[in-house]
Specification:
It is built from one helix and six strands. The chain has a domain of 56 residues. The relative contact order is 0.14. The longest helix is centred in the last third of the chain and has 21 residues. The protein is 23% helix and 41% strand. Strands 1, 2, 3, 4, 5 and 6 form a six-stranded antiparallel sheet that branches. The chain is of the alpha+beta class.
Amino acid sequence: MLKEKGYTDPIVDVEKGKVETDYIIQGDFRAKVEATVKKLDRREREVVLVVTTQKKTKEGWKPTKMLGKAQYDRFFDEMEMHIYREMGKGD
């Protein structure tokens, strides 16, 4: 799913349940994604998503808030749909 969003070659650590991307740059902004999946029980998982966004300034890259609740909600909705598609494929 991250590749579809423009993030190339995410680093996947299956043992730690972590996915991390490099920054993608669009104009004066850049963003990267880190997702961690933690097994809660046999059927449930907890997903922690961190989207780091920065704005280019004369002094270098500075943290900035680009995403609001609506963007996070949309991201999780897309992730949920992707999970259902993968589950539908079967083993």
